[in-house]
Fold these 4 entries.
Entry 1:
Amino acid sequence: MASTCPNCGRRLRWYEFKAECKECGVSIPNFNWEARLEEDAEKAAERSLAFHKTMNMFTYSIWGTKLRIVRIIMSFIPAIGYILPWYKITSDAQSIGIDLFGISTDGKTLLDLFKSFFGNMGLYFTNMGYEGKSGVLTYTMLAVFFMVLSLLFMVIAFFMILFTNKHPKSKLMVIFDALGIASCILSSIMFTIGMKGTGAETAVNFGDIPLYNISGGVMWGYFVALLLLVVALVFNFLVMRAPAKSHEQLEEERLARKAEKEAKEEQKRIEREKAQEEAEKKAKEEQERIVAEAKAKLAARKEKENKKK
């Protein structure tokens, strides 16, 4: 119930359940219903238009052109690069492959490193303190951090394609792709710096993973991931620079396609009616022919019978 009467403006109490106003007697639910119905119709039309606009821009931003179709694919494919081997650390004790499935080593994987780190982060930071926060452990963990950060920027860039559909020439995807590439490069720099400081006397515990006489290097998966990120950046840049259609243009095209579809359906309907009429005409002619033949046979039979008499 409204807080005031729409006719006289009298304040309505919460315990008043009658439909009529005590002051003026007007039926509050039915007051000025035609105007409210028109207002509801206008609001519904506005919501429908807004929905069509959103859907037009959403579909256009994803697969509106061939370039955009390739862009959405190439913005997702770099995720493959993050399951490939980026780095490999070997030692006389164990080896660690910075990849998810142990492609580069039979030792520990990136998942094992994550479990060890989050299982006892204090031990990691203590060991980093022992090496003055400038040793192989520190730089390797920084390399992993920038690797994860690069993946995060890649994911954000992908979802920006969906979230910025109303702005088809947005630069956000390019910015996040660039940040992802920068993080990827920083990751390899951190790892390389850490490996340069190792030697035969180097020994450090990666949590509960002991390593000594350490060596390692950047693996092929890193370069694949970096290449895919660059390709994604290029396509996002090309889309950003390419001409983009407005909602009005997309709506005109949608209405034109709708009109064309309706015209084709109308043409098919007319053809079906013509075919039906022709079929009915042929059936009628065939029936008339059968009737005429039957009459002719009957007349011939009667004539023959008359001659015999």
Entry 2:
Amino acid sequence: MKGKLTINQCRAILICSGILILACTFFFLFQRNSDTIQAMENETRQYKNQVNYLSSLQMQVNEMQKTTPALQTEMDAYMKKFSNQMPQIKAISYIDQMMVKTGVKITSIKPGKEQRFLEAGKFISVNSEGVSPDAEAQPVTGGAVNPVEANPQQQVTVDEMIGKAASYEIEMNGSMKQIMKALDWVSGNDDHMSVTSSSFSFDASTGKLSGSVTVSFYAMNGNGRPYEEPNISGITIGTDNIFGTFND
């Protein structure tokens, strides 16, 4: 009958329609979902990497937690080796002990200004004399006194402690053995102190060395160590005595 489609034509149309539907499904549904799946896989991979990273950090934290108490004990013991304060009279008593123990003759002492080398858990840069070159550029706000400085014997955390250093220029003379013994006495002292500079010349007429050393004395305000008042009953400061002169 004219105008009617044959069976084969209907089949061809159905096949083409099916193919068209499949193509549309692929491009408009499957392809779009495929892109979404790929994006989700990439995102999942990133999350897995983050989880692995955080897991490794957690393992490190667990290991640090095991060693933290021992490290804290070691840190506390180290901080306790500092005197909680180092006034001039105590520094002078140490210098007198050095003279008595080693046999050197002290002729002059010139004390330096006490300055900070540790504050808020951070070290402040120091110069060749062991003190901060810019300490005076860091005044206390409003002139207020830091409570740790007001009571240096109290126990506070390391972040609250204030480390201070004061350098003393000491003129002395003695034999090579006595001078070396004096330098060793400073470096081996239980309280923290160090020789930051030295200059000596040899006197052929006496066979001795004469010159000066700069010794830095350190203190840690807030380390909880009780202050020990030095015994200065046998020390005389002035002219014609064991120290010769004292320059303030």
Entry 3:
Amino acid sequence: MGTRTWWSENCEHCRGKNTIEAYDAPSCLQWFKKCDKCGWSDDRDYYEISENEIALLTEQELGELKNKDPKVKRFREELQRLEEKK
């Protein structure tokens, strides 16, 4: 199994002390970060961008990366096609 990290931190949005709960498990593509007090959440997620690479990005950042890098675009399109066949 890969590395899994769980921690708390202060929220910059509501100034709550240790109100953000964060969990990071890149080996299973899981990311979670949310403030229990104000409800703010980090909207990043893990995305496969090549056969051997994952990246922690927002959907907007993924779109920008696909526009900049044709290899990432082709790879993500192939993943989509495979998902649609299921």
Entry 4:
Amino acid sequence: MKFLNLLNLQSIDLMESISNLLGARLQLGQTLHFTYHTIFKKQKKKVLSLSQFLLAISLAHPRLSRRTLQRAYRVFERLVRGCGFWITELEEIDFVLLAKVAECRNLKSLTRRELVVQIRKRMDAGDSYKQISKKLDKTLAALRESPPRLPKVVLDTDHRLADMKMDFRLVNSAKDPPPATPQLPADYFDLGIPGVVLPWDKPEPE
């Protein structure tokens, strides 16, 4: 069996499919978040609470419980929107671990971000899901008892940075740019169409 060339379109499609699979619940949380806020954006008073909104969706789609929808919403709200992570940064981390971090109360965005970074480091070190989950449970229990106190100016600045990262008018983040665009084969755009000769493309005199 020959290995797929990294420049092969099939391998790019495969990478996209795997990414879609791993990030499916994060994408669901993103869709729920923007749908909910778009519906009531122009209303002075929300006529439907988030809980009622998720319940209505779960009734329309019985295979998904309100708890499942709520968990997807919270992970996106608190880790992507609140902490400024890219979805691609979170998709390879087990969703249950992300949910534990997102659903732990009284944690600030800086603390949540540090927990996610520690989870990734333990994954890179080869720790199993059971080991990471056990360590995370102990850490979260300690944080519930005594959450870290951070200066308000630090929290405000961190929140602004996360908001900037969620501003889709910004093409790139200077602090944490997105992954590089996959390289396509050199002949990908060669469709047999003659090239356009521009007026300034004159041949040099002999």
